[in-house]
Design goal:
By secondary structure, the protein is of the alpha/beta class. It has a single domain, classed as 3-Layer(aba) Sandwich (Rossmann fold), CATH 3.40.50.1820. About 45% of the residues lie in helices and about 15% in strands. It contains eight helices and seven strands, in the order ββαβαβαβαααβαβα. The protein has helices at about 30-40, 65-80, 95-105, 125-140, 145-155, 160-175, 195-205, 230-245; strands at about 10, 15-20, 45-50, 85-95, 110-115, 185-190, 210-215. A seven-stranded mixed sheet has the order 1-3-2-4-5-6-7, with helices on both faces. Helix 4 packs antiparallel against helix 5 (about 145-155).
Length: about 250
């Protein structure tokens, strides 16, 4: 049996401009590990929190919902404020991108970058994500097909309530995109499902930012920061942050 090590948060202290890096649903801080390392090299402080129940045995995910993870994001933002950072930008992928948009509607941020953000998700799709994660996790552990089948049952029997709440959270965030006026970059993978390109266009049209950028990456699927375009994506991130900051100090 393979023992999978639990994920951890990432905190790399740099200059006075802090970047809050938000990972995707059913993934963990590995989504942002290379991003954090690269942007820290550029001088930025980088903090990637780990949402509750993520980066560990899939059973832990069943204990939490989208509002717990949103609270984790708010706590992470408050942590940076308590550490003395007054200049905070946010980069988020997938659900991390949704949280980024929500945070930009409520707090004073410098600029934001969102990747692979859906403007809507069906509860059944969200439930399937957890089931797929559970299956893959147990498969990597080296469990037998029978054992996996038995252990997957609680996931199959999950009620849709928490996923309906998740759907509502996404919809509510998208209803208030016009509150966003700070610089925003919206990235999507051209090898991802079509809905993500459409979602990126919708977000681009509805935010009220005077500085905004929309870009698709030809070789990217959903987890763009781990894919074949990751170097280009990081270059774009650095360029966007520099262009809309102007006073980066090493």
């Amino acid at each position: 049996m393979v023992n999978i090590l639990p994920a951890k948060e990432i905190y790399l202290q740099g200059n006075e401009h802090a970047l809050l890096l938000l990972h995707s649903f059913t993934s963990h801080t590995r989504d942002m590990k290379k991003v954090a390392a690269k942007l820290h090299e550029e001088g930025y402080t980088c903090y990637a929190p780990l949402y509750r129940g993520h980066g560990n045995a899939p059973e832990q995910l069943l204990q939490y919902n989208v509002y717990d993870w949103w609270q984790d994001v708010m706590n992470a933002y408050q942590f940076l404020l308590d550490e003395g950072y007054q200049k905070i930008s946010v980069i988020g992928i997938s659900i991390g991108g949704i949280f980024t948009l929500k945070l930009a509607q409520l707090e004073q941020l410098e600029q934001i970058i969102v990747l692979s953000v859906p403007v809507e998700k069906e509860p059944e799709q969200l439930k399937q994500r957890i089931m797929d994660y559970a299956y893959n996790y147990k498969n990597i552990e080296g469990k037998s097909a029978l054992q996996i089948s038995n252990e997957i049952e609680p996931f199959t029997n999950m009620p849709l309530d928490s996923f309906i709440a998740f759907q509502h959270f996404i919809k509510d965030t998208m209803l208030h995109l016009n509150k966003i006026t700070i610089p925003i970059a919206i990235f999507y993978g051209e090898r991802d499902e079509d809905v993500y390109a459409q979602s990126a266009e919708t977000i681009y049209q509805q935010v009220q930012s005077s500085k905004k950028k929309l870009k698709g990456f030809a070789n990217s699927k959903h987890l763009m920061t781990l894919g074949r375009d990751q170097e280009d994506i990081m270059k774009e991130m650095m360029e966007f942050l520099r262009m809309n900051n102007g006073d980066l100090t090493q």
